[in-house]
Amino acid sequence: MAMIVSACGKKEDNNASNASGGEDKVYRFATDAQYPPMESMDKDKIVGFDVDFLDAVMQEAGLKYELKNVAWEALLTSVQQGTEFDGGISAMSITDERKETYDFSPAYFESTNMILIKEGSTIANALDLKDKKVAVQIGTTADTLMSDIMGKGSKDLKRFESNTLAIMELDNNGVDAVVADIAVVQEYLRNNPNAKVKGILDRDNFESEYYGIAFPKGSELRAKLEPAVKKVLESDKYKEIYAKWIGGEPDLTGVLNQK
Amino acid sequence: MCLVSDFNFHIIEDYFSLFMEGTILTIELSIAGIILGSLLGLAIAFGNMSRRWYLHLPTQGYIHLFRGTPLLLQILIVHFGLVAQVLGRTDAIVAAIVALALNSAAYTAEIFRAGIQSIDKGQTEAALSLGMTRGQAMRHIVLPQAIKRMIPAFGNEFIVLIKDSSLVAIITAPELMYWTRSAAAQYSKVWEPYLFAALVYLVLTYSMSKLLKFVERKM
What we know:
The complex is a heterodimer.
Chain A: H1 14-17, E1 26-31, E2 34-35, E3 39-42, E4 45-47, H2 49-61, E5 64-69, H3 72-81, E6 87-88, H4 96-99, E7 102-104, E8 109-111, E9 113-118, E10 134-137, H5 141-150, E11 157-160, H6 163-171, E12 177-181, H7 182-191, E13 197-201, E14 209-211, E15 214-216, H8 220-234, H9 236-245, H10 253-257
Parallel strand pairs in A: 1-5, 1-6, 10-11, 10-12
Antiparallel strand pairs in A: 2-3, 3-4, 7-15, 8-14, 9-12, 9-13
Helix pairs in contact in A: 2-8, 2-9
Chain B: H1 3-6, H2 9-49, H3 53-68, H4 71-87, H5 92-117, H6 121-129, H7 134-164, H8 176-187, H9 191-218
Helix pairs in contact in B: 2-3, 2-5, 2-8, 2-9, 3-5, 4-5, 5-7, 6-7, 7-9, 8-9
């Protein structure tokens, strides 16, 4: 592989040039806006829980920012590299594996994976899926969980680019179930009351997951935003945002207990 | 991210058998796409060259449609809109072959037409004057001469098709690109699997061009 020439070691050093003019720096965030209600496109605007939450956090921290729509797999890579973006907010569950690649903000949302199946299905929990066909979005915790249960080389585990395509596959009888974030599944059920599908939880096999804002390793922005995130979590603004996008009252006991 | 020292061969080791399975499927899909696409393309070329409007117009339309829309969209439409409706369920491999063949046919149709029309009319006239029918003239005189001229263009199309087959990862056909993305997602590392995949595609396309050079010399 001697032909590989790449950016060895040099990361763009934004902080040095902004030592004095810190307030003018516009921080760049990425999100994969194909994930309602957390983030999605409304014509040419990105909207969603994460959008409003990030706005609240950046306002609290008094920092300028911009948010771009980036495809999921590209987002994972570019946030890791840290040259194009300073952070990523995209319903990203904090996992030990991911902590090796990213620094995370404090947890800001509790989630779990849910199984979406057709109405007549006999599937009752995640283990029932072992010999079935399942669709997930590639690179999500659903992907990791199902790869563990079904084996990562399983031809019956179909990794799609987005949950939209995964759900279409279920629609067209290509798989028996889709495993995805509860927020995504519930949003789909809400928007498709005639779809003849149902969602089931499996608290035994799918543990609670907590979303965090992802930063490249060694990020200074992460430290800057930590107090802001904590402040917003305890504020009424959070309840407002939650009620608007998810509905009802948030239960933050799990979230606040995360280290 | 210092690439050379950090290159994690472990990822490639871990996924190697899946990459090889995927490569085999890539080769199979490409061969199927090439053969079916060429056969269909030949038929469409004749339809396009015909003066009968009911042959000419639909085939012209076909060529415009399949050359004029992105293959990615064609794959999605064939997978969800065509195969799933016909079979009652999805089948990624069938959809992949159908999409690649339909797309390739539009391009090969034009390659055939260019090759056939480049043969001097005198050849056909001579054949007819010897008592051959138009069909015999085409089969025994024109096509054999034309094919030799078409080989470089076919080479282009076949090589493009091998690379285009990587798009079917989006409907989760388990070819090379699909496993490449799975490896990248599992390990959160893109360079190792992507560069390895690039190397494999290079080997495949290089072999294809070598094969076609050999065929061209033999004609």
